[in-house]
Design brief:
Radius of gyration: 20 Å
CATH superfamily of the domain at 2-176 and 210-235 and 280-314: NAD(P)-binding Rossmann-like Domain
Number of strands: 17
Number of helices: 11
CATH architecture of the domain at 2-176 and 210-235 and 280-314: 3-Layer(aba) Sandwich
Oligomer: single chain
Shape: globular
Distance between the termini: 31 Å
Strand content: 15-25%
């Protein structure tokens, strides 16, 4: 696949919005393995830009550039898009409670911001637009999910009015990305460092789980595979959140001066707008779904390497969860790098 990526991204100018976030910055790291011409990292976080600039200071001048901006700012997006070949949109408001209590702000970022990017892509004749979506967009029950669903629809429906413009629009739908800013792992880590308790919303809650590099790689594959108006979903293992919490305690408590038995778990109940299970693909969406061993592909147009799928839906409470020791093994692997929990 590396040869395919190298050919596809060669000499391309690439804009990554939300580029200093956990997923956005990993997309940048992944792209830098290939002969891209330039990567533009756009975000509104000046301090995160400074930190990422230090990480990439060894690179030739101009290969990575940093743009302060917000996708809400329509004029800024048109300026940032000049000369760009590919856009990865990882900018969003993604914390469920914050969106629930600030719905108009969520609309401005997730909905209007996405529309700004779509319009700027068309005007600049960008070749590919890859939009980051979420499980919360599948039959949403909260503000975050509703705004992300509308953003997803805006991105995919842009195919219908692109006219003579060449932009190919697609979206990628994620489950939980371990260690990202929207995940619970950094919170659990801080609670363990303080001696507990670790707050668990519901003992029966289940979640799909993926690693940050997997999320970034799925974005790159979507860019290569997309034919337009299509949605990609990575196949992911399922974890019971109680197993997830207890595994984090088992692994991390000894590292911060406690025994696992010292750290208590406190059940606090579901947060506003939260589901007990995750849905990544609804029954209605499954009517037009293809799959390979790695992902699902939702489209009316099949592509090479994908077969028609028999899945009727894809939800975490209908998939056998990982065994507890498997969860421990998963977490030991990703916790080797503290950047996954230092947020």
């Amino acid at each position: 696949m590396d040869k395919v990526f190298a050919k596809f991204f060669k000499n391309k100018v690439i804009l990554v919005t939300g580029g200093t976030g956990s997923i956005g910055s990993e997309i940048v790291r992944s792209l830098l393995k290939f002969p891209v011409k330039q990567i533009r990292i756009l975000s509104r976080d000046e301090y995160k830009q400074f930190l990422l600039e230090q990480e990439f200071k060894h690179l030739p001048i101009g290969r990575v550039t940093f743009l302060i901006g917000d996708i809400r700012d329509r004029n800024r997006m048109f300026l940032a898009m000049e000369g760009v070949d590919i856009v990865f949109n990882a900018a969003a408001m993604k914390h469920v409670p914050l969106c629930e209590y600030n719905p108009f702000e969520a609309v401005k970022t997730n909905v209007l911001g996405t529309q700004n990017l779509v319009d700027a892509c068309r005007a600049s004749n960008v070749a590919n637009f890859i939009h980051v979506s979420t499980d919360k967009a599948a039959m949403p029950i909260n503000v975050m999910g509703a705004t992300k669903l509308l953003a997803e629809k805006i991105a995919l429906s842009a195919e219908h009015y692109r006219g003579p413009h060449k932009t190919i629009f697609c979206a990628v739908r994620f489950g939980n990305v371990f260690g990202s800013r929207g995940s619970a792992a950094p919170l659990f880590y801080e609670q363990i460092k303080k001696g507990g308790p670790v707050t668990l919303t519901d003992q029966d809650m289940t979640r799909f789980m993926m690693k940050i590099p997997q999320a970034a790689m799925l974005m790159l594959k979507a860019a290569v595979l997309s034919k337009g108006e299509d949605l990609f979903i990575l196949k992911m293992p399922v974890m019971r959140m109680e197993d997830f919490v207890r595994a984090m305690i088992e692994i991390l408590a000894p590292k911060v001066g406690y025994t696992p038995s010292d750290i208590k778990v406190k059940i606090v109940g579901k947060r506003e707008g939260e589901k007990k299970y995750e849905l990544l693909m609804s029954e209605e969406e499954a009517e037009d779904v293809y799959e390979n061993d790695e992902m699902f592909y939702l489209s009316k147009t099949p592509i090479a390497g994908f077969r028609r799928s028999d899945f009727k839906h894809y939800r975490s409470d209908k998939i056998d969860p990982m065994k507890y020791r498997e969860v421990v093994g998963f977490l030991k692997n990703v916790l080797k790098e503290e950047r996954y929990i230092q947020r």
